[in-house]
């Protein structure tokens, strides 16, 4: 069993600003100890001839390439606007700004 004591968990919770009950501290000390034990077992089995992997299956981008295409002209973009000044959309002032 790893050296994850209730004192260590309590200290980590204090550093993380997490309020834990004594029961939660007791539970977490056992769970964190088990996690560290499992990591240690995996480290024992890891050999230099086995390549590291970040994902068990190859990842492929399923999106099409980002290619610039035709865009709207300013007049086309402003055609459906409730208000505009010919070059920009007009919107109401916000956050107490004066018009």
Automatic annotation (TrEMBL):
Record function comment: Allows the formation of correctly charged Asn-tRNA(Asn) or Gln-tRNA(Gln) through the transamidation of misacylated Asp-tRNA(Asn) or Glu-tRNA(Gln) in organisms which lack either or both of asparaginyl-tRNA or glutaminyl-tRNA synthetases. The reaction takes place in the presence of glutamine and ATP through an activated phospho-Asp-tRNA(Asn) or phospho-Glu-tRNA(Gln).
One GO-annotated biological process of the protein: translation
Signal sequence coordinates: none
Name by which UniProt lists this protein: Aspartyl/glutamyl-tRNA(Asn/Gln) amidotransferase subunit C
Reactions that this protein is recorded to catalyse: L-glutamyl-tRNA(Gln) + L-glutamine + ATP + H2O = L-glutaminyl-tRNA(Gln) + L-glutamate + ADP + phosphate + H(+); L-aspartyl-tRNA(Asn) + L-glutamine + ATP + H2O = L-asparaginyl-tRNA(Asn) + L-glutamate + ADP + phosphate + 2 H(+)
Quaternary state and interactors: Heterotrimer of A, B and C subunits.
Superkingdom to which the source organism belongs: Bacteria
Family, similarity comment: Belongs to the GatC family.
High-level lineage: Bacteria, Bacillati, Actinomycetota, Actinomycetes, Micrococcales
Main enzyme class: ligase
HAMAP family in UniProt: GatC
Entry-linked InterPro entries: Asp/Glu-ADT_sf_sub_c, GatC
GO molecular function: ATP binding; glutaminyl-tRNA synthase (glutamine-hydrolyzing) activity; transferase activity
EC number: 6.3.5.-
Keyword terms: ATP-binding, Ligase, Nucleotide-binding, Protein biosynthesis, Transferase
